Amino acid sequence: MAEHKSTAVALGAYICFEDEAGQGLKPPRGRTWGRRGVTPVVKVSNAGTKRVNLAALIAFRPAARPHVRLIHRSLVYHGWKNEKKGFDEHDFIRLLDGAHQQLRAPIVLVWDNLNRHKSATIRALISTRAWLTVFYLPTTAPELNPVEGVWAVMKSGLVNLIKREIDQLHQIVKQRLRRMQYRPGLLAGLLAKTGLDPLPP
Predict the structure, then answer these.
(1) To the nearest whole number, what is the mean pLDDT of the chain?
(2) Which of 4, 13, 71, 116 has its CA 20 to 30 A from that of 60?
(3) What is the DSSP string of 114-178?
């Protein structure tokens, strides 16, 4: 991580951690209310393959009091014929271009070794963006990515909600992520949980 910070400071850049997740109509496991001694049963309709795909960045500049930001995009898969099932390389680049416009600064991107993150297509797209520098996290260390914490917080609030349609779930997920955008203390806590020191090297 020291290398990432040194690069960011030298470029006047934001360090951006990126990750993807997905959520179907089947709710995540968790605790819920119920009568004592009676296991609650939640009926889920249209569980199938319908899915909300998510991609997000946690961005910050190394500083004594870093301002941490959350930038996200979503894509719904309804199970229709010829419908895109998930994010591709061009979707990732659109996310990064949008982040660059919002942050108005170079970006040091840190993400995992997913095949689509290292494909010839993404390498070609990245090579045309002088403001973008890329590092890869170790495959065995997802806990170093604070965006994993974003997904955990977001999904923990879905346990007690009944979602009958995938578009309804999409609206709920977007609403929860928007709320997190206005909780810089929470985002800073997720960053601190990785053990990353936000101070310049």
Answers:
(1) 89
(2) 116
(3) -GGGSSHHHHHHHHT-TTEEEEE--TT-GGG-THHHHHHHHHHTTTT----SHHHHHHHHHHHHH
DSSP 8-state assignment for residue 107: E
| Mean pLDDT calculated for residue range 181-196 | 92
DSSP 32-43: ----TT------
Sign of CA dihedral 201, 101, 142, 113: negative
Helix then strand count (H, E) for the chain reads 6, 5
Distance from the first to the final alpha carbon of the chain: 10
- Cα 145 to its chain centre, rounded Å, is 9
Reference 21, options 196, 154, 171, 119; nearest CA is 154
The answer to whether 16 and 55 are in contact (CB under 8 A) is: no
The whole-model pTM stands at: 0.89
Q: Is the pLDDT assigned to residue 47 strictly greater than 60? A: no
CA distances from 1 to 10, 116, 196 (A): 14, 23, 7
pLDDT digits (tens, 9 = 90+) for 119-128: 999 999 999 9
- What are the backbone angles phi and psi of residue 121, rounded to the nearest 5°? -65, -45
Q: Are 110 and 141 in contact (CB under 8 A)?
A: no
